[in-house]
Amino acid sequence: MENRPARVLAIHDLSGFGRCSLSVILPILSAMRVQVCAVPTAVLSSHTGGLGDVEIRDLTDFITPALRHYERLALDFECVYTGFLGSPDQIVSCLSAFSLWKKALKVVDPVMGDHGKPYRTMDAGMVGRMAELVKGADLITPNLTESYLLLGKPYDFSPLPRGTAKSMLARLCEMGPRCAVITGATLVEGGLCNLGYDRERNSYWMVSCDYMPVSYPGTGDMFASVLVGGLLSGDSLPIAMARATGFLERTIKDTFSYSSDPRYGVQFERDIGALMGHGVLKEFTLL
Fold first, then answer.
1. Contact (CB, 8 A) for 137 and 107
2. Distances (CA, A) of 106 to 43, 132, 136, 217
3. pTM greater than 0.90
4. CA–CA distance, 46 with 23 (Å, rounded to integer)
5. Closest of 78, 91, 86 to residue 37, by C-alpha
6. Residue 62 pLDDT > 80
């Protein structure tokens, strides 16, 4: 690599208000000394979680021409990182990016649902196409809802035994990726955790985190962004998980302490300086 920061091609939507998707990905990865090349899949006036009628402009017809432009420029990317995708055509464009930058770390955050329910745009056809994208990934970062959707299983609200959690991680990696990280899982034996599996090393990891009685938009985007930044700076999978978990836990606690409107997202601006050093690490253990 030439003398420059690591470069990420980020194919996500952009919400103007509410702290999610590209509006958090750009500053977080920049703070971690990673250059972000943003390819918006859609532009929204705000996220869609309770902020009234949202103005949306679909940018599906922008994605492939943008990728062709970067190909003509002979740009190299160390990572291709995808998030919310609103149509099968957008998934096809992401698969094209994987083909164009074969050596890049391919990270898929398969944004499809939360709290046990799929999003309205995620029908069975879209879930199937998302599985195609997952097959081409090196790393996926589903939450627990998305993990069940990818595995074709009905959502179970019960805490997971460790054996079940390890089985889910292994089955997700059988779909294609080398590594899988499940966020926001509750274990019978360990409380709220983020869970990871590295198929090549056959190693399972967990990072516990404190539960807070609140839900904020964009936390999955923040977690995956810190995870990507850590991996690109040389972190192992469990260290990157610990870094992402620690930063997110700190920002959620700080935001909750101010009684901020949850719809406005996590006030990560107060804590982003921690990412410019070594970040906030949690303890990680074998699962």
1. yes
2. 23, 13, 8, 24
3. yes
4. 10
5. 78
6. yes
Buried b vs exposed e over 99-123: b needs ≥16 C-beta within 10 Å? ebbeebbbbbbbbbbbeeebbeebe
| Alpha carbon distances (Å) from 100 to 11, 72, 239, 256 | 14, 11, 29, 42
Mean pLDDT score of the chain, rounded to an integer?
95
Tens digits of residue pLDDT in 239-269: 999 999 999 999 999 999 999 999 999 999 9
d(CA 248, CA 75): 31
Burial level of 269, CB count in 10 A (0-12/13-18/19+)? exposed
DSSP state of 102: T
Q: Provide the 8-state DSSP code for 81.
A: E
**Distance (Å, whole) CA 227 – CA 233:** 10
Tell the residue number behind the tokens 């972000």, with chain if given.
36
- Residue 202 neighbours by CB distance under 10 Å: 9
CA 170 vs CA 134, 157, 211, 269: distances in Å: 14, 20, 26, 36
Give yes or no for a contact between 208 and 223, defined as CB atoms under 8 angstroms apart.
no
Q: Burial, 141: exposed, middle or buried (Cβ in 10 Å; 0-12, 13-18, 19+)?
A: buried
Distances (CA, A) of 89 to 58, 77, 182, 258, 283: 12, 22, 26, 41, 40
CB 193, CB 187: distance < 8 Å? yes
Of 170, 172, 142, residue with least CA distance to 287? 170
CA distances from 146 to 20, 102, 117, 279 (A): 18, 26, 9, 27
Cα–Cα distance, 10 to 26 (Å, whole number): 9
Per-residue pLDDT tens digits for 175-211: 999 999 999 999 998 789 999 999 999 999 999 999 9
Two tokens, residue 265: 């997202």
Q: Is the dihedral of CA 206, 207, 208, 213 positive or negative?
A: negative
d(CA 158, CA 212): 18
